[in-house]
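Hi everyone, sorry if this is the wrong subforum. Our group has a chain we'd like a structural model of before ordering constructs, and none of us has done structure prediction before. Sequence below.
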Amino acid sequence: MIQDAPEAQQEGRLIVVSNRLPVALDADAAGHPRLVPGSGGLVTALSPVLRDRGGIWVGWLGTSSEPEGLSELVAKGNIESGYTLHTVGLTQDDIDGFYRGFSNEILWFLFHDFILLCNFDPSYWPSYECVNRKFAETVARLASPEDYIWIHDYHLLLVGRELRSLGMNQRLGFFLHIPFPPVDGFLKVPWRRELLEGLLQYDLLGFQTVRDTTNFLRCVRLLVPQTRIQGAGSIFTLRTADRELRVGTFPISVDFRGFAKRAASGTTDVFADQISRSLNHCQLILGIDRLDHTKGIPQRIMAFGEALTDHPELRRRITLFQVVVPSRMEISRYQSLKEEIERVVGQVNGRFTQPGWTPVHYMFRPLAAPELVAYYRMADIALVTPFKDGMNLIAKEYCACRVHSDGVLILSEFAGAAAQLHRDALIVNPFDIKGIAKAIHVAFTMDPSEKRQRMRRLRRAIQRNDVHRWLDNFLRAAFARTMSDFRRTGDFSPSYYPSGSQSDQETGLS
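Answer:
Right subforum, don't worry. Here is the predicted structure as tokens:
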């Protein structure tokens, strides 16, 4: 049971701080700059809380060059979103050192156990500190003593430390959307103590899984041994030499009702009919991922080819649709990954393609929300096999869209979602190509009644623990507040953007 935080304030706004704002800079047909809604679970969860309640969202727009008229664009965005957007401007040096460097060449790979891909360039650390200071200074200018400040993800681990150094005594919450590494991995960071002591400046630290919470506590015991740790279950209390904080497990989820409603809509019917005509009576296996080394995409496609080798009866009866959403294409390592995926797709198709049947359909582009939901609804099998993920909301989105309670979820044991969904998903080791191939055959041949039983239980679990419950649990533990406590001043029907629907904005949600 989640306990309320002590000494709650009676009034105050929620200030959300994340690397990216919930809007992105784009251009219209005439080339004029405009702001468009962002994507991902964080936008889905928090926009309804902030809208028309005086909330504030602080973040970066994703560019080093601010277009003419940006202040007018942001003012328009404030009106359309119903809350206040505040931008943190980053220079190209900031982007290179803080964002591409420390955040994505060190923390991203390290926290996902890809140690050998880390680039521990010493110049990245001062840039990371500098940008975290910029975020903190922006928050300090905006916050009043009664406000609640909630900071998100690996880009901003030090914002709490910087806020404390600026004399900010407000209650600070922090949620990590990606995994927290085990001790032997975290010890490899040259700045491990600074990062850990920075995290101890928050009042509540939230992690996705018990495994992540345990990894963090073990690091604290080793590197800050004077810290006293008490508690069990989902919440622990830590006492350092000068302060007390809490650490808890808060698995994020999706807007179950919103996805189910969208999946049953007429718009989805149109896209679903188009997909159905393209299948030629084949079962559809669906993979949707952002381009990243952590997702295990080449191995998944190889496993599909292995299934066709081991079980010839699957040929012409099953098709893999693999969607890869472009990401970080300016980095050569990601370009090489794209080339590897395309090579493996070519190998499988070259070996097994027959007239009227192509085994793998590969798309390298984002999907619009209605198209994505239609693929979820039409897929007989979802293949979600990351090497490691904080949660992976694709798995939950798929189940939420299975409005007929059919379909099979094949899920990596190293995705955070496996902790909640392991009883009714087919759990696989993403490194075991033969094992994934076997799971594909099991899913294809599974009795329809067993499929329905499994999917009903999966959907009930996700519906009970949807994104709104995650939000209330964290707010209650951090600030003794719930979503309803931030009083709304206007009417609002929340929109939502599936996490696989647009190019990832580096929130780490999927």
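For your construct planning: The chain has a mean pLDDT of 89. The domain at 14-253+466-484 is CATH 3.40.50.2000 (Rossmann fold).
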